[in-house]
């Protein structure tokens, strides 16, 4: 006999919906760092401080000097599917902000202890709110203190989802993932000051600068002294950045940074296009280093493929592949180091 359905079909409680969604987006501490940094950048921050404790599991506190959130909007900031970034399908198709799903803070708040403190430029003082609104325990904002901008303080990640907690790796591994996320966003925005500390010790402090200097700060002086500039435009497509000389290639693909409209992506098509440009000047077991930024009409690219938005889809992927391949090939052809007779034109 068929087993009986254990229960009638029922809608899930909101808190559980958020925890399920969080499972998808908030895989580990570095995912919290990514979401909070993206929010800070979307808020127009020029200076961002990231404080981590115990690999981010104990605490992730991110402070920015961005536009802040008015106290009456704070409960919405923590609510699911609430965003200030899009209001319609046409906004979604032209989205220029890093966030737009309105899910991150709600997801984080459902699997950690979250406190949001914020002050807008015209407010007399800061306000704060904590808890998870879907839990019904967030309530209203309370008066607080602090400078203009926002601090989001996330403690005890996965305190209420022990199954998730078990999947966490060592403190050092989790910290490594967090630091990598900071590097990705810092390379995307060389104009912004980033400070990162772990367990009270300063790990990185990058002053605001241009992309070349930021590359030196993050990819190292070695890369900076052995790289070629890329700056190509073809119709609506533009590729900007730096590619490492073939002689500076690495044994691991650990210094490959590609951005589409300011968003870090790891896209097979783009990786392939760059790799193909290096084809004739690089051994198969070596990996090029690069920091490249592709700009195009947002309507020509779909960033809504996956909640973590690391994958993208292009309307005309062939044209994008060709453009990236040719732009990188031309940059590599600038150098006599590629004069093996087979450098692509
Ligand atoms: P999304 O970024 O997709 O809109 P989030 O859950 O990450 O969703 O954030 C919800 C809303 O909270 C944002 O739309 C924004 O209005 C506000 N917000 C979040 N973080 C910040 C911040 N650091 N500064 C200003 N506003 C913020
Ligand atoms: Mg966001």
Automatic annotation (TrEMBL):
Residues 215-333 form the DNA mismatch repair protein S5 domain. Keywords: DNA damage, DNA repair, Endonuclease, Hydrolase, Nuclease. GO terms for molecular function: endonuclease activity. Coiled coil: none annotated. It comes from the Bacteria. This protein is involved in the repair of mismatches in DNA. It is required for dam-dependent methyl-directed DNA mismatch repair. May act as a 'molecular matchmaker', a protein that promotes the formation of a stable complex between two or more DNA-binding proteins in an ATP-dependent manner without itself being part of a final effector complex. Belongs to the DNA mismatch repair MutL/HexB family. This is DNA mismatch repair protein MutL. It comes from Keguizhuia sedimenti. The chain holds residues 3 to 347 of 612 of the full protein.
């Amino acid at each position: 006999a068929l087993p009986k359905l254990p229960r009638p079909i029922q809608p899930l409680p909101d808190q559980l919906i958020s925890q399920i969604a969080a499972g998808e987006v908030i895989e580990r501490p570095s995912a919290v760092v990514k979401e909070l940094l993206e929010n800070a950048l979307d808020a127009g921050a020029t200076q961002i401080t990231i404080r981590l404790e115990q690999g981010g599991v104990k605490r992730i506190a991110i402070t920015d000097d961005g536009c802040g959130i008015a106290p009456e909007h704070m409960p919405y900031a923590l609510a699911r599917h609430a965003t200030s970034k899009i209001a319609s399908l046409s906004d979604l198709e032209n989205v220029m902000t890093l966030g737009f799903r309105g899910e991150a803070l709600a997801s984080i708040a459902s699997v950690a202890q979250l406190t949001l403190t914020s002050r807008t430029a015209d407010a007399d003082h800061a306000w704060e709110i904590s808890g998870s609104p879907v839990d019904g325990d967030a309530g209203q904002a309370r008066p607080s203190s602090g400078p203009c901008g926002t601090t989001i303080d996330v403690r005890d990640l996965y305190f209420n989802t022990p199954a998730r907690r078990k999947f966490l790796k060592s403190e050092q591994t989790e910290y490594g993932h967090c630091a990598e996320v900071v590097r990705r966003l810092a390379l995307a925005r060389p104009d912004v000051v980033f400070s990162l500390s772990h367990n009270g010790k300063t790990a990185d402090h990058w002053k605001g600068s241009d992309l070349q200097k930021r590359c030196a700060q993050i990819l190292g002086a070695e890369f900076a002294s052995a790289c070629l500039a890329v700056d190509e435009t073809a119709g609506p497509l533009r590729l900007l950045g730096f590619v490492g000389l073939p002689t500076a290639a690495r044994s691991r693909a650990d210094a490959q940074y590609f951005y589409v409209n300011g968003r870090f992506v790891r896209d097979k098509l783009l990786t392939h296009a760059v790799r193909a440009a290096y084809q004739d000047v690089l051994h198969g077991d070596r990996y090029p280093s690069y920091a490249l930024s592709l700009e195009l009409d947002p309507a020509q690219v779909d960033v809504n493929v996956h909640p973590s938005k690391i994958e993208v889809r292009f309307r005309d992927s062939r044209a994008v592949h060709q453009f990236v391949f040719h732009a990188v090939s031309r940059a590599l052809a600038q150098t006599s180091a590629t004069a093996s007779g087979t450098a692509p034109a």
